[in-house]
Amino acid sequence: MEQDVIIAGGGLNGPALALALAQAGFHVTLVDARPDGARAAEGFDGRAYALALASQRLLAALGVWPEVAREATAIEAIRTSDGVPQGASVPFFLSFDRGELDEGPMGFLLEDRYLHKALVAAIAAEPKIRRLSGVSVVAQEAGPEAISVTLSTGEGLSARLLVGCDGRGSGVAGRAGIRRQGWGYGQTALVNALQLDAPHSGVAHQVFLPGGPVAILPLSRDRVSIVWSEEERAAARIRDLPDSDYLDLLMEKIGHLTGPAQLTGDRFSYPLSLSLAESYIAPRVALAGDAAHGIHPIAGQGLNLGLRDVAALAEVLADARARGEDLAAGNVLERYQTWRRFDATSLALGMDVVNRLFSNHSPLARGLRGLGMRAVAALDAPRRSFIREAAGLSGELPRLLQGRRL
Ligand SMILES: Cc1cc2nc3c(=O)[nH]c(=O)nc-3n(C[C@H](O)[C@H](O)[C@H](O)COP(=O)(O)OP(=O)(O)OC[C@H]3O[C@@H](n4cnc5c(N)ncnc54)[C@H](O)[C@@H]3O)c2cc1C
């Protein structure tokens, strides 16, 4: 059977898109290079996502949220502070509380292992999706009516549209001739979880230190996820420390915010870079998620941006079909690109500027960021727009991000 859509990449955005499209009536094949079960393994990935309220609504509309709600932690407050190298922190210069947003909490923390597992289970129950794991897309050729795809098993498939959800090194983009722009940050994110002695009360912290920002994100059962960005040589030294020395160093920086804590689970590290596709579309091809834009994790927005792509692309395709248009007609794909590209690029570059301004301790940078943050804190309009942006509620929202089905 010819598919409507083939999706390369079974990380998080690929499965979310497959579900959204199948629920809108499309036949989808989802191909993931990673073997089944690898991602669910304990110790696979220490990542936890700060899911904006709009992303949570999308997961609810897809029917996935009830399966993960028990493991998700609502963000009750966000506190930012400008740390100094010795570890003492100046008072919070920007704080937000749950009551400031009428719609509910700004977002939720959820670990990768729960989210991915719930998406895979929902896909298994969806007859319109064929899911292949441990299989790669190795070749593609766009024609006037369809795109032909060759898999690593030798099988050939064809569909109206191929979507690359295959991450920053997207082969789908490369084979379609889409070039990328970007640069390394010279920083590495050290990621681990801590078990706290005292409850975290749902407070998320962002501490700006000269080597890079440290995020403290509240998880279920009074654990927190730490995303500690450091200059890459320092990070390599810290990564190689035994657990007790690593914990001592971390506590010097954030112990005043967490209280006593123990390491729990494995430690991970991710080199940080920016990677933006020059176009999100090519003939019979669209890109979504990190394949379109890999950004700095400073404000935890990467997956949220990807889920915005998912919601917009699914809506554009469903509306095109209702109008009797070819799913991959140039004007249909252009609608998707117009909707998403400006938002994603401006957020990616905005995070880049924030990271540069905060990841150093020159007196000028300290003065500028203090001034900027005090202005946001004091003025009602920027403050409100900051909160709505963090909750993913600004801009023209696709239906799924409003919690409505397609
Ligand atoms: C330290 C850190 C912390 C983060 N914290 C947050 C956060 O708090 N909130 C947030 O919103 N985001 C966060 N992010 C960003 C988030 O992790 C990513 O944006 C998101 O995981 C990207 O998902 P994806 O599905 O687009 O790509 P990926 O997860 O990269 O998945 C790509 C998939 O494609 C598969 N693949 C590759 N090539 C092929 C091929 N040829 N054929 C078939 N399959 C293929 C791969 O096997 C993989 O499974 C963080 C990132 C980092 C590094």
TrEMBL record:
CC cofactor: FAD
Matching InterPro entries: FAD-bd, FAD/NAD-bd_sf, Ubi_Hdrlase_CS, UbiH/COQ6, UbiH/COQ6_monooxygenase
Pathway(s) it belongs to: Cofactor biosynthesis; ubiquinone biosynthesis
Presence of keyword Lyase: no
GO cellular component: a single term: ubiquinone biosynthesis complex
Q: Which GO terms describe its molecular function?
A: FAD binding; monooxygenase activity; oxidoreductase activity, acting on paired donors, with incorporation or reduction of molecular oxygen
Q: Which GO terms describe its biological process?
A: ubiquinone biosynthetic process
FAD-binding domain ranges (all copies): 3-341
Q: Which family does it belong to?
A: Belongs to the UbiH/COQ6 family.
What PANTHER family does the record tag this protein with? UBIQUINONE BIOSYNTHESIS MONOOXYGENASE COQ6, MITOCHONDRIAL (PTHR43876)
Q: What is this protein called?
A: 2-octaprenyl-6-methoxyphenyl hydroxylase
Q: What is the lineage of its organism?
A: Bacteria, Pseudomonadati, Pseudomonadota, Alphaproteobacteria, Rhodobacterales
